[in-house]
Amino acid sequence: MQNLAAPAPLPTPPHRTHATRISARALTKAFGPTRALAGVDVGVEAGEALAIMGPSGSGKSTLLLTLAGIERPDSGQVMYSPAGSAPVDVAAMPDRGRSELRRTDFGFVFQQGLLIPELTAIENVALPLMVLGIPRQAAEAEAAQWLGRMGLAGMEQRRIGELSGGQAQRVAIARAQVGGASVTFADEPTGALDRKTSSEVMDVLLASTVGRGASLVVVTHDATVAARCDRTLTMEDGRISHQFFRTQAAAAQAAAAQAGGTR
Questions:
Q1: Closest Cα partner for 218 from 64, 70, 66, 97?
Q2: Domain 19-105+181-191+206-263 in CATH: superfamily?
Q3: CA distances, 99 to each of 39, 89, 105, 111, 176 (Å)
Q4: Full-prediction pTM beyond 0.70?
Q5: Of the residues 145, 154, 156, 171, which has the maximum number of CB atoms within 10 A of its CB?
Q6: What average pLDDT score do residues 98-108 get?
């Protein structure tokens, strides 16, 4: 497999302000008889990387989509606090308002990237800016800078099918960050990648989000990915069952790896 180029340096992480970026209270969501969320409280700080883990059907992806304003909860509140602006209740916003928020303040990275295969790498990254009305030349200039930060300089004109899986995910990360997202939501962003490429993609995902003081919320099955985040929540049956901070998660991962090696 082709190795990914090392990413260009990104800013040194600024001092954490511990300001709350998202605060959700008493979230419930049901799909028919299935309770996906059963009274969830969660907060995400500015500059924090938060991992959400749990078995399939535990509600972790529903929680991510609800925090991002893609799903509307049956009850509860999702308060988003933009820097320098008054908090807004995402759950109570009309569809148009939530769509606008996702264009301007939130970024998204999914397992398969969801890039447009007919477009080149630079066109995929520039697209969110052009949707906001930025002229194509200026949008592509900004997109080129982000691709350079991702270690993809010289690959701007390649179509998605001409890139490796790890390179395509870097394009997806650049697309999520090009508009200066305050919060990035990533659903299994390394799920389709091998271990080495997964680590490299997490390097650039963390550097491009918390590395510039933005927040990151990651849904993952991978304990290695979760251990690199500041905090990990484990969900069961629509509720948060456990919370680990980075040092605890790393210790638990090391213990599990040691136990596996002694079998």
A1: 64
A2: P-loop containing nucleotide triphosphate hydrolases (3.40.50.300)
A3: 25, 14, 10, 21, 15
A4: yes
A5: 171
A6: 92
